[in-house]
Predict the structure.
Amino acid sequence: MYDYDTSGDPARIAWETEELFVEHRASLMRYLRYRLGDFATAEDIAQECFIRFFQARCKQEVIEQPKAWLFRVAHNLVIDHGRTKKLDLVGDDEWRLIEAGLAAQDMESEYRLRISSLPWHTLTSTEMECLRLRAEGLKFREIAGVLDITISTAASYVARAVNKLRETQVERASKDASETSRYGRITAVRSR
């Protein structure tokens, strides 16, 4: 828990906000870019989150979990943005490609390829959202707060998402192994 000033001193609250900005901006931006697919809008919403934090603290609101609070505000602002934005529909397959690309943007190319080939389309939007928040370091109780669900539901969504992705990897590895052994037998027969 952060040691916040309770006097409402704007200078002290500005310092708290700056500390929070330094610590969580990158994670918040990754989450917003993932959700929005637009760097400029993600940047605007991230700035709005920190402004709202500053304003809430100036009103002497106690924020016990600032990271979860920021992600909750960001989540709500993304929803609001979606309501006001003109409909620009992207198909499910296109969206999965965007998600895979964003998830992999900072990874090595081989690892990026493996991540992008995961069956993201098998996950529900809530499973994907919970998994993404968990990847950004939020605890289950923080995810629950962001999405307004119970802690056990958040844990369940993450577990289901991981299991779906894992099952597909096991199936793929099994298929690759059987093809390798089949081709290995063919090679052995031809070499006789």
In short: The two ends are 71 Å apart (CA to CA). Residues 151-190 form the longest helix (40 residues).
